[in-house]
Write a structure and sequence with these properties.
Layout (H helix, E strand, L loop, with lengths): L5 H8 L3 H8 L7 H14 L5 H8 L4 E7 L3 H17 L3 E7 L6 H10 L5 E4 L7 H9 L4 E4 L10 E4 L1 H14 L5 E5 L5 H16 L9 E3 L4 H12 L7 E4 L2 H13 L9 E3 L16 E3 L2 H16 L8 E4 L2 E3 L10
Parallel strand pairs: 1-2, 1-3, 3-4, 4-5, 5-11, 6-7, 6-8, 8-9
Antiparallel strand pairs: 10-12
Helix pairs in contact: 1-2, 1-3, 5-12, 6-7, 8-9, 10-11
């Protein structure tokens, strides 16, 4: 006989796993109709909660886990900085759990984390925040979590995100205003929410300005210097060389600088370059990099705050909070020169 779990109850009730969890935990502000469906499904399925596991978590450990996968070093520094600051402010410790979602044993590691989980909740960073297999594991085992930058925003669980789409749209529009039409684009890690949103913002800005999208001007990177270098070399050695390259993060933009120097292309006279994130490395590049500033540490702080509100039965005014990005215009861009 198939084991009855929280997922089974959600399926019978026709509601989300999060709704079942809220009813089981006697959370406030549960829709009465949903509560009735869940209670009926609990009777129908004969579901019995694992009181031992629930009891262990009920005794607060005052520790949260930050789960992330192979991000750029500068991103994870800001992520940890923000999460640690909010944890310290609220009397919590932070357990760091780095992993690599590309590894064959990735899900095994996450399953092991869930199996032995004794902390109060998890802050899930991208791209794991978009992985249904991981999120379902947390839901099924009644582990509180909050997500940073998920691609699919709508959820009954708290999440924070940056308007990557709008920022990329605005940056591309700015480059077009300088007269550039052949705008090369280096995408971030495949499957990463920020990668999808930034690329879509770039494409939509071109469409809005009636500039035909050219697939040959796009390369698939991976938010790393090495992938940025490979992509930049392909773009700058092609017959359809771009007049500007928009890299999806600052590390890949720095790699464009390297390739441009090797090919004796002057920035910005022969090639304009822009990045995304406004990481500390932008201060060491010359000319200074035009980029987009996103509040990574602030997002992490807010994610921790919302998670603790959820754990401690305090209501979150908004379940999803968006942060604006800011264009930082420096010396790596100039008007188009034929």
């Amino acid at each position: 006989m198939e084991k009855v779990n929280i997922k089974s109850v959600a399926s019978v009730a026709g509601v989300s796993i999060a709704s079942v969890s809220r009813v089981l935990n006697k959370k406030e502000n549960v829709n009465p109709a949903i509560k009735a469906k869940v209670e009926e499904a609990l009777k129908t399925t004969g579901y019995r909660r694992n009181l031992q596991a629930s009891g262990l978590r009920a005794k607060h450990s005052y520790t949260l886990t930050l789960l992330y996968s192979d991000p750029s070093p500068s991103y994870v520094v800001d992520l940890q900085k923000g999460a640690l600051a909010e944890c310290d402010k609220q009397g919590y410790s932070l357990n760091i759990f780095p992993c690599n979602h590309r590894n064959d044993d990735f899900l095994e590691r996450i399953t092991d984390l869930v199996k032995h989980f004794k902390n109060d909740g998890v802050v899930v960073a991208p791209p794991i925040s978009d992985m249904a297999e991981v999120i379902n594991l947390f839901e099924e085992n009644d582990i509180p979590y909050t997500r940073i930058s998920p691609y699919i925003i709508e959820s009954e669980r708290p999440s924070v995100f940056c308007n990557d789409y709008g920022a990329a749209f605005d940056m591309t529009t700015y480059l077009l205003s300088l007269g550039h039409e052949r705008i090369g684009f280096i995408k971030g890690t495949d499957g990463h929410s920020a990668s999808k949103n930034r690329f879509q913002g770039y494409k939509d800005a071109l469409f809005t300005q009636r500039i035909e999208f050219d697939e040959s001007l796009v390369e698939q990177g991976g938010f790393s210097f090495d992938t940025g270098e490979v992509c930049a070399r392909r773009l700058l050695k092609s017959d359809n060389k771009p007049s500007v390259i928009f890299a999806s993060n600052d590390e890949m933009a720095a790699a464009v600088y390297k390739v441009a120097a090797q090919l004796k292309l002057d920035i910005p006279n022969n090639l304009s370059v822009v990045g995304f994130d406004d990481t500390p490395m932008t201060k060491f590049l010359w000319p200074a990099l035009t980029t987009i500033r996103q509040p990574i540490a602030t997002q992490a702080k807010q994610a921790v705050n919302m998670l603790l509100n959820y754990i401690n039965d305090k209501s979150n005014e908004d379940l999803q909070i968006s942060f604006d990005c800011e264009l930082v215009l420096r010396e790596s861009t100039s008007i188009y020169r034929p």
